[in-house]
Write a structure and sequence with these properties.
seven-stranded mixed β-sheet, 37% strand, single chain, 33% helix, alpha+beta, 3 helices, four-stranded antiparallel β-sheet
Length: 238
């Protein structure tokens, strides 16, 4: 899978042990949980030498931004299995630790399936689908000596859906975190090259401006010398 710019492609982050029934013995109880945990690190990929980590900054969950989102609640990462939606049957709130949600469960086969599988502990986690906008990529040495690449999101373009599931979607598909890492690095290198080109252009402009200023000063001195010479010649004639 080739991605020209990661910001043009949807991402998904999984949070384990983040969903529950509000009251297990009440058939009308809503499903609740934490859809997005801020300032927490999720390991997306790891091998013998490297570890890729993703985290969400609180700035991604600005109140005005969240109110504008049309968010669906799905089962097992499938859009065809949506059973709640903001703002009526799915309610979200920004708390200190992230985005919390509460969903009314419809009286249908899908709702009954979701409720039963959460109640028996099969589904314990929740993920969210989002479109990245602003992010940083930094590298550090982990406690075990591995190189750690940390992708930190600081602003989302949009949040599409929350998903009730038992495992991350990125571990079940062919889209590997390694490919994402390569594209993040490619994007960062392109940004660095653009920044370097901009700085070089600015230096050239400053050098040209300095040369022009120096030339103006030289021209002014030449004019002064010429005027003095003319005055001297006129005095000699007199």
């Amino acid at each position: 899978m080739k991605i020209e710019d990661i910001r043009l492609h949807k991402r998904e982050i999984f949070t384990p042990n983040s969903v529950q029934l509000r009251e297990a013995d009440n058939q009308d109880s809503p499903i609740s949980g934490v859809a997005i945990v801020t300032d927490s690190e999720t390991v997306l990929y790891e091998d013998d030498r490297e570890r890729v980590i993703e985290s969400i900054a609180p700035s991604c969950l600005a109140e005005d931004f969240i109110r504008e989102q049309d968010i669906k609640l799905n089962l097992l990462h499938e859009r065809s299995k949506s059973f709640a939606r903001t703002p009526k049957s799915l309610r979200v709130a920004v708390e200190k630790d992230g985005l919390h949600f509460e969903a009314d469960v419809p009286d249908c086969d899908l709702g009954k399936q979701a409720r039963a599988l959460i109640a028996n502990g099969t589904y314990t986690g929740c993920s969210f689908e989002f479109w990245p906008q602003d992010y940083t990529v930094t590298e550090r040495e982990g406690k075990d000596g591995k190189n750690e690449v940390v992708i930190r999101h600081t602003k989302f373009e949009a949040i599409d859906a929350l998903t009730i599931a038992m495992s991350p979607a990125y571990k079940e598909t062919s889209v590997s975190a390694r490919e994402l890492l390569d594209e993040f690095r490619k994007d960062r290198e392109a940004a660095a090259q653009a920044q370097a080109a901009q700085e070089a252009e600015q230096r050239e402009a400053e050098e040209a401006a300095a040369k022009a200023a120096a030339q103006r000063e030289q021209d002014a001195r030449d004019r002064e010398i010429a005027i003095l010479q003319m005055k001297s010649e006129m005095l000699n004639i007199q």
